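Retro notes, item 3 of 5
We never archived the inputs for the zinc ion complex last cycle. Fixing that now. Sequence and ligand:
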Amino acid sequence: MAELQFSFGTMGSGKSTMALQISHNLASRGLRGALLTQLDRHDAKVSSRLGVSADAIDVKPETDLFELARAISVRAGGLDYLVCDEAQFYRPVQIEQLARVVDNLQAEVYAFGLLTDFRGILFPGTARLLELADRSYELQVEARCWCGRRATHNARLVDGVQVYEGELMVVDDPDRAPDVRYELRCRAHWTEGAGPQLALDLDHDTAVDVR
Ligand SMILES: [Zn+2]
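Structure as it came back at the time:
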């Protein structure tokens, strides 16, 4: 029986690497399928921090993923799998379309994504995946906060300061002003908005108080 599987993790937990690996393994076994992504920095490619990349279909907000899967199936004479990277950015209705790909086309769907956004709230696509997936897995490659604790939250830094409000989708881009970056933090430091520099300052203040 085909299944909708959702693997989630923080940034840097190897989601794209695993998406690339599964896609490569399935294709090299002669199975028919496609690699999908959205909003990757390199257009229509899935790339991992390890420097591997592969061509992928770029999912637009208006893309009907069931119709896309059916078109691939017609062209290839069948469809065995879809590998979906950056699935947190898919719209909830697109996650429902993926479930139909599993149920009506009997294709395996492997989705990969982040759990929560910079506000600490489930991405809408992620919430729908958790609701609909046959299985959900937390990726076991654990990223660390600067303090050494397990990093569970994605902090958005605008010009170096953590923010909790703003547009949901802002991709970090070195050419863009203001400077938007993302950093992994433990819950406590995500809540405090504390980066390593601020913490050093706090330690210093504490030391002064003690004296
Ligand atoms: Zn921390």
